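Handout, section 4.2: multi-component inputs.
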Amino acid sequence: ELKVEQNPLFLSMQEGKNYTIYCNYSTTSDRLYWYRQDPGKSLESLFVLLSNGAVKQEGRLMASLDTKARLSTLHITAAVHDLSATYFCADSGSNYQLIWGAGTKLIIKP
Amino acid sequence: DARVTQTPRDKVTEMGQEVTMRCQPILGHNTVFWYRQTMMQGLELLAYFRNRAPLDDSGMPKDRFSAEMPDATLATLKIQPSEPRDSAVYFCASGKTSGTEQFFGPGTRLTVL
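Output:
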């Protein structure tokens, strides 16, 4: 069964702290995607990771991909309230569709 | 600025009524997806098109849901008859090719009373 598991599913943290969201996938894919969804909004593409060892950074968010471990991470540095959202990872392991994780709801308290 | 568009943005209807949702994918994208999102079930894939041909609609209740792409600029999702359990946000997404980054529309929030 193709699956993508995110951990944790819910995270409440204080501003200024660092944390990591983990995304494990079951296929041999070398492409992994991260999306952000604000409450009541659509999904917005954050990062596209296209090969083993790929690292992408934007502001306080950094995503990486380890295809050997079938693991991607989304690291948050010195969190700020504006980063509160639900974060999804998706794997392109199927031949036509993305396999989605359940999402990690991140709440950052001032 | 190329975007996926969806209409209507909000729809409130009564049980038993027909609902049609429309999506305009990004020009040049050859894959179109319909998703449904609820608090309980999360994000579910309903149907998928490539080059306007339906390739997978296994996630869709066949007795009441139908999805079509009458042309490259329009995808439709129809529910007939609608039921309260169909209340959800329906997203359309498009992509350049299979298995690549998907770009989501703003969604249609459907409420069936």
